[in-house]
Amino acid sequence: MASTGELIAGRYRIAARLGRGGMGTVWRAQDELLGRDVAVKELHVDTGLSELDAERQRERTLREARSVAQVKHPGILVLHDVVRHDEQPWLVMELIDGCSLADRVTANGPLTPAEAARIGLALLAALRAAHAAGVLHRDLKPANVLLESGTDRVVLSDFGIAQVAGQTTLTRTGAFVGSPEYTAPERMSGRHTGPESDLWSLGVLLCASVEGESPFHRDSVAGVLHAVVVDEIRPPQSAGPLLPVVRGLLERDPERRFGADETERALRDFLAQEGLPTVAHTPAPAPAAPRRRG
């Protein structure tokens, strides 16, 4: 693992660790060539992996780079570069000064329905851009949503398990890649997935934003899988006026699930009735610290 002060690829000086996820650790770094702060993502290397699985890990990192590079939208984290250091690929990304939605809820408690609706609209716009480019995110969850301090900007990050149209899906032997609580039932069942699967995840995220946890939270992975695929779905009453949207998004049949147009219309109508703007804004916990999840 990298350490503070280490120089990556002869250019990026590690300053501090920002976050750690299932696939990598993200560091704050100084770009010594351009004199700016960036986020760099270090791939987790499992020394027990076979050469084939290690190559799949590296390919997953490059897949993230290719996925993000195909989408240009202010609601999607900007990728600056891909470099190699110690024979491993690193992603060099825009640094967001703020926190993740998960950190915001943990620090300040659940959002109001209006706050959740505005963030939902921003994420919907980012997903539309990704889907138009043929990219499915497949891991939309509060930890992968960044809230920039002092602005209205909501940023979707972590395209590490994204699927790009026309490319073979990567899997990890013997493991589920993704976040089960936020994964659509058709993907759990191994069926074909499309943009509607990301919309299911958006519905779960809205629930988690106003309740503090997803409606599919259980004590075991098996329990989560059963809840997503079989159990009765009970959206939180804290969703209030968002309940019709949430129910529409958490429809197990993808053909009956709310599409992007229906979702946007419902969220905008709710905010209009409340006399509120449709631009996402929610205060970050104090003190705000630069965050970027791995």
Report on this model:
By secondary structure, the protein is an alpha+beta fold. It has two domains: 7-93, Phosphorylase Kinase, domain 1 (2-Layer Sandwich); 98-273, Transferase(Phosphotransferase), domain 1 (Orthogonal Bundle), CATH 1.10.510.10. Helices cover 33% and strands 18% of the residues. It is built from eight helices and eleven strands. It has a six-stranded antiparallel beta sheet with strand order 1-2-3-4-6-5, covered by helices on one side. Strands 7-9-10 form a three-stranded antiparallel beta sheet. The chain has a two-stranded antiparallel sheet with strand order 8-11. Helix 5 (195-211) packs antiparallel against helix 7. The two termini are 14 Å apart.
In short:
With 294 residues, the protein is α+β, with helices and mostly antiparallel strands.
CATH architecture of the largest domain: Orthogonal Bundle
Q: Which stretches of 5+ consecutive residues score pLDDT under 50?
A: 166-176, 281-294
Q: How can the largest sheet be summarized?
A: 6 strands, antiparallel
Q: N- to C-terminal separation? A: 14 Å
Order of helices and strands: EEEEHEEEHHEEEEHHHHH
Please specify the SSE layout and strand pairing.
Elements: E1 7-8, E2 12-20, E3 24-31, E4 36-43, H1 51-69, E5 79-85, E6 88-93, E7 98-100, H2 101-108, H3 113-132, E8 135-136, E9 145-148, E10 154-156, E11 163-164, H4 185-188, H5 195-211, H6 221-229, H7 243-249, H8 260-273
Antiparallel strand pairs: 1-2, 2-3, 3-4, 4-6, 5-6, 7-9, 8-11, 9-10
Helix pairs in contact: 3-5, 3-8, 5-7
